[in-house]
Amino acid sequence: MRIRTPGVRVRRISAAAAVTAGAVLTTGIAVAPAQAAAPPKPSIAAKGGFLMNNGSGKELFNKSADTRRATGSTTKIMTARVVLGQRNLNLDSKVTIQKAYSDYIVRNNASHARLIVGDKVTVRQLLYGLMLPSGCDAAYALADKYGKGSTRAKRVKSFIGQMNKTAKDLKLKNTHFDSFDGISNGANYSTPRDLTKLASNSMKYSQFRTIVKTKTYTAKTKTKTGGTRTMAPWKNTNALLGSYRGAIGVKTGSGPQAKYCLVFAATRNGKTVIGTVLTSTSSAARVSDAKKMMDYGFKVA
Question: Residue 153: in which H helix or E strand, if any?
């Protein structure tokens, strides 16, 4: 039984309210709750890196993002972008594989899609051969088809000109191409920021998005005699696919100057981050770099 003291009204005050009241009475200032500390920026092996929110364009990570570097086969993102930007593009148009493409592969010891001389291959198939196994033969075939000129050399030069015009149109101020595949003649370069912007723009094409997130693709080509050849499956060189939750692309690159490069993107909880690392130390390191950057990016995006 509770006994009331005459003339005194009993009032209960919670412990939390009492503490708060005490703090205000003592200091005259209400104490705000502590904010969570920002996550530490990751340390990456690559010499250059950049990450942004693909929706807003907000910069999320920057390490020497505007320093020009060799790009290796990440150049092929622009090759694909130029093709997809052609007027009245017919992805089912066929291209006959020439001996010149095969000779080029042998001469440069280049990565290839194992295209067979004389086979007829669709533009769609060439884009898969370009982006999954990083086929320089597929790149050559596309440059030969979509360049303009009376000779193959002129058509290739014209196509590279289209690549540089597209870079200018996209305001990629630190980017220049001298090849259709990244096998440079000394003037093929870009930056992590520019390549990320290029990849972001390329991802606006549904066919590009479909291709770069594909892990394996089997092409069926037409032979000289009219038969059908089922090619060995092309496997995507991007190890993030299947190993990083939400990964949706984009392209690997490597070379004597470029070392190990990767343009990458992933979507989680409705947010897409997209980025680039250039001049990393190994194929494993470029993947690790990308994962660390994206983990960080999703926290701060």
Answer: helix 152-169
The confidence score (pLDDT) of residue 38 equals: 83
Q: What is the pLDDT of residues 149-194, one digit of tens each?
A: 999 999 999 999 999 999 999 999 999 999 999 998 889 999 999 9
145 closest CA partner among 70, 90, 208: 90
- Of 63, 76, 251, 259, catalytic: 76
Catalytic site includes residue 134: yes
Q: Give Cα 250 to chain centroid, integer Å.
A: 4
Q: Which member of 63, 111, 134, 184 is catalytic?
A: 134
Residue 191, classified by CB atoms within 10 Å of its CB into exposed (0-12), middle (13-18) or buried (19+), is buried
Q: Is 73 a catalytic residue?
A: yes
Whole-model pTM: value is 0.88
Whether the upstream peptide bond of residue 19 has omega within 30° of 0, thus cis, is no
- Residue 46: CB partners within 8 Å, gap ≥ 6? 63, 260, 277, 278, 279, 280, 281, 285, 286, 289
Active site annotation includes 76:
yes
**Rounded CA separation 193/49 (Å):** 8
> Which of 63, 73, 200, 288 does the annotation list as catalytic?
73
